[in-house]
Design goal:
The structure holds 2 protein chains of 2 kinds. Chain A is built from 6 helices and no strands. By secondary structure, chain A is mostly helical. Chain A has 2 domains: 111 residues, Up-down Bundle (Four Helix Bundle (Hemerythrin (Met), subunit A)); 32 residues. Chain B has one domain. By secondary structure, chain B is an all-alpha fold. The N terminus of chain B is likely disordered. Classes of the chains: A mainly alpha, B mainly alpha. The interface between A and B is large, with 40 and 35 residues.
């Protein structure tokens, strides 16, 4: 387990450093790129505990699509680059409060669910077949609920976009 | 080495090469180093071979000219000479460029290319890492190059580069979907994402009980093969999908400010990715390194496999570059319409049909 602990320490340190740069840098493009490092770190952590499929999905969806959408948005809306003086810290206290609340909720939820449970010593990777078996049997209801939710969001986005366009 | 680390490589370590080939068992780090060295060697070579055979010679012959003839016999050393020339160039940063991002962008593109090669199998043991998520991994890391291209387009501080970067992002996102969906048919048929097992499934497959040529998935997944090739063409931003680099409109798009070895990185990334995608197509649709006759677990395939794979890769690459030199550039709206209104519905229909056949037979 020692190699995993060392790897976790390195990945976590990089992620924390990058995450703090996301909120402290005044260059919005750099913020988005630091976010890439954080998300890559999440993928690395998934791989570390043997969740290959989830880790790869993390790369495909978050770095390959979500971040690209961010960059796309920034490039279409902002033409200036370098440090932006408009980027201020006026709302840093509400932001801190939100972050603290989120942390509290997550800690409570995780401790409540897992308590003092430990990861098994033998972390063999979960195969894709196992993931899909669980997804389509044990977790079929949440899976379908999420699908419907995403479909609703998709249709909603199209409706909003078309209204602006058509007048 | 702990379990989770070693596990992806376990199938490799579990079946050591027969002693007829190597007298001693190599430790983990040695085999890793050898594999890394091989990959680092293969990519520039692949880029050179494709660049020479197709970009320089095939295009020239199709246009009734000779192409480079001076450097080496029949101009074979032309790209090496070009490479040396690139290395001599001054490393120029635009004055107002975002220097760090500008410098990192070509590396991101190149790393994305390198990572694809990790899962491409060239023999029963000749693969860097046999992953359970195989093809899914390859498609995921290939999508990382978009980030590099957007970084380049933004950091160059140049309107042409910005427009090129935006066009590239719009195009790559649009064609990512048909690329992934086209592969689904193969995955359903083989019942696995693992590229090595996809090869085995094809070599040991049967066509209505006849196993004379195995069952290369191009026979049943020709729709998927077609969609995959079109999407690859767009992912490579090659003609007829070269809006992002269109020389006559935006003088090279996101590459416009890059010189010397940084430009060389983009060039290598482009041809390295072309080779990788051709190899993926060869593995998924043409049976990969295996031949349908004889025992495919025989160690000899570790030597013959790469050669067989190379032949198939060159066949696929010929198709890719044939398209490239034949068709004129699509307009942006035509390009998006092709992806969203034709390729994606077609790919979805293909998945449904494949699924039905899988259940029925």
């Amino acid at each position: 387990m020692i190699a995993e602990h060392v790897a976790f320490g390195i990945i976590a340190a990089v992620m924390v450093a990058a995450a703090s740069r996301v909120v402290t840098t005044r260059d919005i493009m750099h913020a988005a790129l630091y976010l890439v490092i954080v998300l890559a770190g999440v993928a690395a952590l998934f791989l570390l505990v043997g969740a290959e499929f989830t880790g790869i999905t993390q790369v495909l969806i978050y770095i390959g699509a979500v971040i690209v959408l961010f960059l796309f948005g920034i490039m279409l809306t902002r033409s200036d680059f370098g440090d932006n003086e408009d980027t201020d810290y006026k709302r840093k206290f509400p932001a801190l409060l939100t972050a603290a609340l989120l942390l509290a909720v997550m800690v409570v939820a995780l401790v409540d669910r897992f308590g003092t449970e430990k990861l098994p010593d033998d972390l063999s990777p979960q195969t894709t077949a196992q993931v899909s078996d669980e997804l389509f049997s044990q977790f079929i209801v949440p899976f379908e609920a999420v699908s419907v939710l995403l479909l609703a969001a998709l249709i909603g986005a199209i409706v909003v976009a078309r209204r602006e366009e058509g007048g | 080495m702990s379990a989770a680390f070693a596990q992806p490589f376990a199938p490799l370590l579990a079946q050591p090469l027969p002693s007829a080939m190597f007298a001693l068992e190599v430790p983990y780090w040695v085999s890793s180093a050898i594999k890394l060295g091989l990959v680092a060697l293969i990519i520039p070579t692949a880029a050179l071979v494709l660049g020479y055979v197709f970009l320089l010679k095939m295009m020239s012959f199709m246009q009734s000219r000779l192409g480079p003839m001076e450097a080496g016999p029949y101009g074979t050393l032309q790209l090496l000479a070009d490479g040396i020339k690139f290395l001599q160039k001054e490393d120029i940063f635009p004055e107002k460029a975002d220097r760090t991002v500008f410098a990192l962008a070509p590396l991101v593109v190149l790393i994305s290319t390198f990572l694809i090669y990790v899962v491409i199998p060239a023999g029963p043991n000749a693969v860097v890492a046999q992953l359970d998520v195989g093809i899914f991994y390859a498609l995921a890391v290939s999508s990382l190059s978009v980030v590099g291209i957007l970084m380049a387009g933004w950091a160059s501080s140049n309107k042409y580069a910005l427009v090129g970067g935006l066009r590239a992002a719009g195009q790559l996102i649009a064609y990512e979907l048909p690329l992934v969906l086209a592969v689904m048919g193969v995955v359903i048929q083989a019942g696995t994402l693992d590229l090595q097992k996809i090869v085995t499934a094809q070599a040991q497959g049967e066509i209505f009980g006849w196993d004379g040529i195995g069952n290369p998935f191009i026979l049943t997944q020709f729709v998927g093969f077609f969609i995959f090739l079109v999407a690859v063409q767009a992912e490579l931003t090659q003609p007829p999908f070269d809006m992002p680099v269109a020389e006559s409109e935006i003088v090279g798009g996101y590459q416009v400010e890059y010189t010397g070895f940084r430009f060389l990185f983009f060039f290598m990334g482009e041809f390295g990715t072309a080779f990788a995608f051709a190899a993926l197509a060869a593995v998924m649709f043409l049976g990969g390194w295996a031949l349908p006759w004889g025992d495919i677990t025989h160690w000899g395939f570790n030597i013959a496999g790469p050669v067989i794979l190379l032949v198939k890769v060159l066949a696929v690459a010929t198709l890719i570059f044939w398209f490239r030199f034949t068709y004129p550039r699509l307009r942006e709206d035509q390009l998006q319409r092709l992806a969203w209104k034709f390729l994606i519905p077609l790919a979805l229909a293909n998945i449904v049909v494949t699924g039905i056949f899988k259940v029925v037979f």
